[in-house]
Structure formats: C-alpha cells, structure tokens
Amino acid sequence: MDFEPSKKEKQLNSFVVSKFLKTATEKINTSEQPNYNTMYQQGGLSATGGAIHKVVIPLRVAIHRRVAILRKVAIRHPEATHHHRNQDFNPRGMAAQATVSRHMEVQGGVGEDADVKGFDFNEQSIRKSFVRKVYAILMSQLLVTLAFITLFVYHTPTKLWAQQNTWSFWVAFAMMFICLIVMSCCGDVRRQSPTNFIFLGLFTLAESFLLGVTSSVYQSDAVMMAVGITAAICLTLTIFAMQTKYDFTAMGGILLCATVVLLLFGLIAIFIPRNTIVTLVYASLGALLFSIYLIYDTQLMMGGKHKYSISPEEYVFAALNLYLDIINIFIYILTIIGAARD
C-alpha cells in the first residue's frame, strides 16, 4: 500500500532540505582556510645500527627534522584559538572536514521535529575513520618490517649475502632518503593516491631492508627481545597518549631542540673510542626522546581537545611519523641490549 505524505509533511520536508542547502552554502562561502605557511611537521627517523649506526642515526634525524619543520600539516584546535572554527582544507579546493554542526531549527509555525532537527557533520566521525586508516597502514608497515627482520636474523644465506654485499645497504639507504625527502617536502605527493602509497611502499621496503641488515649483526634472542620490549613500550605509550589530559602537541619546539642535542651527542660519539657507557647513555636518551615523539605524534593524530591536530587527508604522513617513531625506539632498545651484553 503506497503511503501518501500529508501536505504538512511535504512542507516540512521541503523546508528542511532548503534550510540544509542554505546552511551548507553559508559554510562553504564563510569557511576560513588555514595558513599553511605557519604549519609545521614533525616526524621521526630510523637508524640502521651495526657498525655504522652511530653515524646514520644523527644524520637521518637531523635531515628529517630540519625538512619536516617546514611542512607539518597541523592545525590549531578551536578551543586553543578563541573558538575559531577548525577547517581542515584540501589545497585542491575540497574541504576535507569542516565542523558543520549547526542545528537547523524548523520555523514558520511548524515547530521543531526531534527526528529532523539537525544534520550534524561531526568531526569525530571523520577523525575516527582517519585513525583507523592510519593504524591499518602502520600495521602493514610493521608486518613487512618484522618479516624482513626475521628473514635476515634466522636465514643464514640472506644474512651472509647482506654482510658481504654492502652496496645493497647504500642503495636501500639512498632509496629511503629520496622517498623520505619527497614525502616530507611535496604535500601533493603524499596526499594523492596512489602516488602516496607507492612512495610509502618503497620507503617501507628500503627501511625494512636497512633494519634487517642492522638486526643481522645482533644475536637472534637479542633482536626478538628488542621487538617484544618495543611492542610493550609502544602499546603502553599509545594508551597513555589517548588517556592523559596533558597536551604533548605543544612540545614541538622542545622536542626539536632535544633532537638537535641528540644529534650533537651522536656526532661527538663518533670520534670517541668504543665505550659501553657512552653507548648506553646515547641509546637511552634516544629511546626516551622518541618515546615522547610517539606520544606527540599519537596526540596529533587523535585531535580532539589537543592544541594541534593533523589534517585527516594526511593519513599517509601520520602513519609515516608513527612508523619512524616506533622503529627508532626499536633500534635504540636493540643498541641498549647489545651494549649491555658486551
């Protein structure tokens, strides 16, 4: 049996639709685009360990931090900017997410209907989808990296080949470096699919190879212990970052200064004869620094009431930051275990 709406219901539906279109138009016309020149990016850098990791760690940290500081797509939360509207804007002209949450009141003597009183495009739903996408990408990266590490640690022919053919290490390092610079400096590359996934995939493969070579110089039980400790630390820090009321997103400048200090320490340590105490201190400071970076990047991704948040269209870059933080923690933990056994 066909249902024929009453005249009053037709008037209500027509009014709601027209009100919705009018509201959406006003939002588009009055939206404020964030100033990308004042935004910055932070990320982490991994190390390669072994005989040359003391050179590679400070170099890569310095390069990525110096480049990253110019390009971070972080935006102020409305509560931190006197309740200005938060608009994550796509430079190609499409609004990735605007907090369009105006409740439309039905006027004209009809009254307010609880079922149709508002169309709430809440940022929370998009942020949750963004977080799920970031962690899906991150888990894929970590699984690939774990597979490479396992191969290099337990498959003797692969381990011997990598140690005898050092050119492969430098080829992988060059690929990693190029992909990192491109994704850090070129916003369109890291936002446009499938280009962003291609560069991220190449970076992950190169980084996984480097970590595999690094892990091959350690005993297998030490590597697996480092993997377990890293997993426990990262899980604990992630839960802490999501639950704590302290806002770490305002610590970008402090973390950058700490990274420069770590860089100088690492450069000085290169010229110091092998010393277990120096290695333990250096690796411990590095693990602590990138543990804080993991909290920082997690809160940037979560958004919410934090002072800064990363744009939902930057899911690849958010995953890259977390991935780099985690592998840095891993390589420093592995260094600590190796130095403690010497």
From TrEMBL:
Keyword Disulfide bond (UniProt): no
Signal peptide: none
Topology relative to the membrane: Multi-pass membrane protein
Cellular localization per UniProt: Membrane
UniProt xrefs under InterPro entries: Bax_inhibitor_1-related
UniProt keyword Membrane present: yes
GO CC aspect terms: membrane
Similarity remark: Belongs to the BI1 family.
Name of the molecule in the record: Protein lifeguard 1
Species the sequence originates in: Leptosia nina
